[in-house]
Amino acid sequence: MHEGLKAMARIPVAGPWITQKEIDAVADAARNGWYANANSYGERFERAFAGYVGTRFAVSLPSCTSALHLALLALRVGPGDEVVVPDVTWIATSAPVSYVGATPVFADIDRRSWCITAESLRHVVTPRTRAVIVVDLYSNMPDMDPIAELARERGIAVIEDAAEAVGSEHRGRRAGSFGDASAFSFHGSKTLTTGEGGMLLTNREEISERALFLRNHAASTERMFWNTEVGFKYRMSALQAALGLAQLERVEELVRKKRQILEWYREELGGIAGLTLNQEVEGTRSAAWMTTVVLDPSFGMEKDELIRLLGERHRFPPFLPPPELPPGLREVRGGPAGPRAEPGRLRDLPLRREPAERAPALEGGRGGGRRGPQVDPEALTRRMEGKGSRTG
Ligand SMILES: Cc1ncc(COP(=O)(O)O)c(C=O)c1O
After folding, report:
1. In angstroms, rounded to a whole number, what is the distance separating the alpha carbons of residues 346 and 352?
2. Are the CB atoms for 93 and 79 separated by under 8 Å?
3. If one looks up domain 3-7+252-388 in CATH, what number appears?
4. How far apart are CA 67 and CA 71, in angstroms?
5. CATH, domain range 20-249
6. Nearest CA among 374, 382, 327, 356 for reference residue 138
7. For the chain, how long is the longest CA-to-CA vector?
């Protein structure tokens, strides 16, 4: 790599965007968010976030993982049940399925949306399927109507994992407003952050009530120190809620910036053969949480090679892996073969795990041909640095 480039500062993956507004909000919570005020920040954040997404109820929680856990519990999913999850997602989507003793079953993702489809869901549904967790991967969204229709036909609950999709829209509705319940993450890597944090959203009052109850050790609201079953300690602090409220007031600006970053990559990389960036499938407006690239063999360079070349200056995480690879995911899946309804037919689907099997560079995958790269990593780095200095 060029010496001049080496001397320049490392460019990290985009982190949170915190202004004085957020700092003032957290300071206010630190001063006042106690005693009678302890819950008021959380309740304000819940009301405001439900209003933004367009659902009736919101329950603030310490993570999206806990939101998915409580959603499954509130839907009474348990041992003997199967829950369909996408073949490619973060382990946090499927781990809660194993927390409740149910079995995750993995469905293929579509090569354009990177989300499951009604067709791939249909292939894995069995009489034991109780729920499907659709994931708005990298802010993309699945074609929801046919999935909802199939789920209705087969009596399957739908949970939307919108961890990566705050601000995305599908056919005029915001991410997180679909299904029986949805879950958001406010982890430090997310567009809207509370440091760590999450939210369960729903239009069904009984799900909201059950989640509120379970998040506080299943404590009675009428009798102090009286727990009627074993619950969980899944509460968000007032300090986190204050940060979330302040971030939410800036959400349009936060999402605009993410879309602008993706647009910069599109301007610079859009014309390169064999390289595909996040696509906006018809009907969906992506909030572009993380710019992601998939390499086709025609790109002429292995993913790992490109990550290594660019990695001198940038951090490029790989695309999320398929479930047979990481040992932890294999365990969640229940062994190397995993429970699949019709493995033979699944293999026939052309869209099986396309992004992870090809070669995403900015976000990972596996490599293709050997004809040499069509993009000069140093020139690319210089161009992105020029853009970066304009971010303000
Ligand atoms: C798709 C998806 N689901 C769930 C989660 C879990 O979020 P949290 O870390 O808040 O539990 C994440 C977090 O990165 C995610 O990307």
Report:
1. 8
2. no
3. 3.90.1150
4. 6
5. 3.40.640.10
6. 356
7. 72
Residue extents of the structural domains in the chain: 3-7+252-388, 20-249
| HSE-up (13 A, CA, CB side) for residue 240 | 20
Does the CB atom of residue 63 touch ligand 1 within 6 A?
A: yes
pLDDT digits (tens, 9 = 90+) for 117-156: 999 999 999 999 999 999 999 999 999 999 999 999 999 9
Closest residue by Cα to atom 12, ligand 1, is: 163
Contact 201, 182 (CB under 8 A): yes
* Structural contact between residues 334 and 103, judged by C-beta atoms closer than 8 angstroms: yes
Q: Is the model's pTM score more than 0.85? A: yes
Ligand 1 atom having least distance to the Cα of 190: 14
What is the best residue among 66, 90, 91, 189 to mutate for testing ligand 1's pocket, by most ligand atoms within 8 Å of CB?
Answer: 90
Ligand 1 pocket, 64 CB below 6 A?
A: yes
* 197 CA: nearest ligand 1 atom: 10
- Using alpha carbons, select from 331, 316, 325, 310 the residue that is nearest to residue 373: 310
Tokens in use for 12? 């990290």
Nearest atom, ligand 1, residue 66 CA: 11
Task: Read off the pLDDT of residues 196-246 as tens digits, 9 standing for 90 and up.
Answer: 999 999 999 999 999 999 999 999 999 999 999 999 999 999 999 999 999
Tell whether ligand 1 has an atom less than 6 A from the beta carbon of residue 168: no
The residue to mutate among 65, 139, 184, having the most atoms of ligand 1 within 8 angstroms of its beta carbon, is 65
